[in-house]
Write a structure and sequence with these properties.
Layout (H helix, E strand, L loop, with lengths): L2 E5 L5 H14 L8 H5 L3 H8 L5 E8 L2 E10 L5 E8 L8 H15 L4 E6 L4 H9 L3 E9 L2 E12 L2
Antiparallel strand pairs: 1-2, 2-3, 3-4, 5-7, 6-7
Helix pairs in contact: 1-3
């Protein structure tokens, strides 16, 4: 099966919604938004989220026409390019999909003029932290509470294009 990764368009809102909600159910303490709050979004909200721009895009990974993974690229108000919403469905892990999603976000960041990509991860999430290190990210001495679960501290990691 051929893996296809592409930025969503407004018409992809149902795939985006289903994949994002699956991610939030599977790993509720890994994201800055809760399943309950995302499930309350209106269809119009999902359509807006699915419409990509240079500053923000969701990328979906498809196998055999079905979405199996997600990542997002977003430029913050501070001008930082962020990797967000990273997730692969459990049945499709260890197949290179996560690395392909990260590569796609890196490419999008570089194409939009960013040499640096940042993300937040809980160091307690050892599997994710190790994965990001393999992708060339390094920890920075910057911490903040996870918005959806303020008792969890996340640490910033960065990748810089060489």
């Amino acid at each position: 099966m051929k893996l296809v990764i592409r930025a969503t368009e407004a018409a992809d809102w149902q795939d985006l919604k289903a994949t994002r909600l699956a991610a939030l159910l599977d790993a509720p303490t890994a994201f800055g938004v809760s399943h309950a709050s995302a499930a309350a979004y209106l269809d119009e909200d999902w359509q807006r989220r699915a419409a990509s721009s240079a500053e923000r895009a969701f990328l979906l990974a498809y196998l055999a026409g079905q979405p199996v993974g997600i990542a997002a690229h977003a430029v913050s108000a501070k001008g930082e390019c962020n990797l967000l919403a990273m997730w692969v469905a459990p049945a499709f892990r260890a197949m290179g999909i996560a690395a392909a999603l990260v590569d796609a976000v890196k490419q999008r960041a570089v194409a939009s003029g960013h040499r640096r990509l940042v993300l937040d991860v809980s160091p307690d999430n050892r599997r994710a932290a190790a994965f990001y290190r393999k992708q060339g990210f390094v920890f920075l001495p910057e911490w903040e509470p996870l918005e959806s679960h303020p008792h969890i501290q996340v640490q910033k990691m960065e990748w810089v294009r060489s």
